Amino acid sequence: MRAIEWKNIYRLSHPKQMGLIAIAHALHEFYCVALPPIIPLIVIDFDISYAQAGWLVTVFYVVYAIFQLPAGIIADKIGKRYVLGFGLVLLAFGVFLASRADTYQALLLSQVVAGIGGSTYHPAGLSAVSDLEADDTAGKAMGFHGLGGAIGTALAPAVIGGIILITDSWRFSLSLIAVVGVVYAVVFHSKFAEPDNVIGNVEKKIVTKGENIRTQLKNFPWDPWVVGLVTVNFLLGVEIGAARTFTTSYVFLRSSEVVSFANTVFFVMLVGAGVSTIVIGPLADMFDKRNLGALTFIVTGFLLLLTGIIPPNRILLLGLFFLIGAMMWTTVPVMNALTSVYAKRDFSGMLFALTLTGSALGNSVGPFVFGLILERTDITIAYPAMAIFSVAGAIAFLAMKRF
């Protein structure tokens, strides 16, 4: 543990570039949770089960996972700016297609398109963060980056729900938010400078340009610590994927409240996620990242178990889900900061692509598995069952070590 330098606790090496990336992350995460807040409405409008609704999220993240590794390799070769801008436009287009869908099959197709677009963000975005910031600011940078994502995720149920309240149309809501992503993609492309144009750390000089893909794969460090990082990302992805998909449904089914209150609880959970990213970034630079990550998993598991026994009181639900959001999303910047420390500039894009492929696979498994559990049991069993993955995640964190 290092001494705390309070005056530099939130200082970043390249705040302007980090700001542009954080906004892109906010929009990306906003689109990734565009469907969960309206799942109860989709179930009614399309006359489908909650398991089928969960499949929409599963398809999105399966496609997302498949295309992440190619996106990371491409980002290392042609630059992060192009990959991030194109991906944001394609993701927004997928959301627009969902707003126009008139069959369940069309909804599935929209998620395929959105998944391809979404797959480009994290390999390119996190690699850019890793390239921009040195090891001693990696935790702060990942926390700031995570804050952008948490804000976007938190705004999704509030903004989408608000537009629905005004227009009484979830389709118009999705169409409107899709336009924002296209506009920002143009702004981002014109303003963002590639990390190798701004970074002053000569030890992180890019060496992948000019290499073919086969050489990149051959030179990549295929070591046990990489498997560990992928495993942790997968387990956390299962938790986050299930929580983001079924929190609104949990409150709706458990308390018999209207969808608007259920989305309020979802929003509060994501506010907790945003608050935690502000605090945890500096802590990840001060404490052992593996121990910190294991601790956040354990506390998250305990809070998830409480969802099976807590009375369906409004105040209790709001408080508990704020804490769940704070602890579950705390693990993200810790994990990304550890990945950034382990990464080197010449394979950072590919490393983040691999680890986040694990995350995307977890995000696809979570909604599917817990959707099936929900269909066969009830929400008081399905939701707390996520704690199993918290225990596994804590063990995986402690078992992983490179240096």
List its salient traits.
403 residues, disordered N terminus, Growth Hormone, Chain: A, mainly alpha
Structure description:
It is a single chain. The protein has a single domain, classed as MFS general substrate transporter like domains (Growth Hormone, Chain: A), CATH 1.20.1250. The longest helix is centred in the middle third of the chain and has 32 residues, at 224-255. It has helices at 15-32, 39-46, 50-78, 80-100, 104-118, 121-132, 138-167, 170-191, 195-198, 213-219, 224-255, 259-286, 289-306, 314-342, 348-376, 379-382, 387-399. The chain is built from 17 helices and no strands. Helix 6 packs across helix 15 (348-376) and helix 7 (138-167) packs antiparallel against helix 8 (170-191). The model is unreliable at 1-9 and 197-210 (pLDDT under 50). The two termini are 16 Å apart. It is mainly alpha-helical and 403 residues long.
Task: Write a brief structural summary.
With 403 residues, this protein is mainly α. The protein has 17 helices and no strands.
> How many helical elements?
17
Parts with pLDDT < 50 across at least 5 consecutive residues: 1-9, 197-210
| Mean pLDDT reading | 81
Tell me, what's the shape?
globular
Total beta strands: 0
CATH topology: Growth Hormone, Chain: A
Distance between the termini: 16 Å
Computed over alpha carbons, the radius of gyration is 20 Å
Q: Which oligomeric state applies? A: single chain
Instruction: Give the class from helix and strand content and strand pairing.
Output: mainly alpha
Sheet having the most strands: none
Instruction: List the secondary-structure elements in sequence, H or E.
Output: HHHHHHHHHHHHHHHHH
**What top-tier CATH class fits best?**
Mainly Alpha
Number of domains: 1
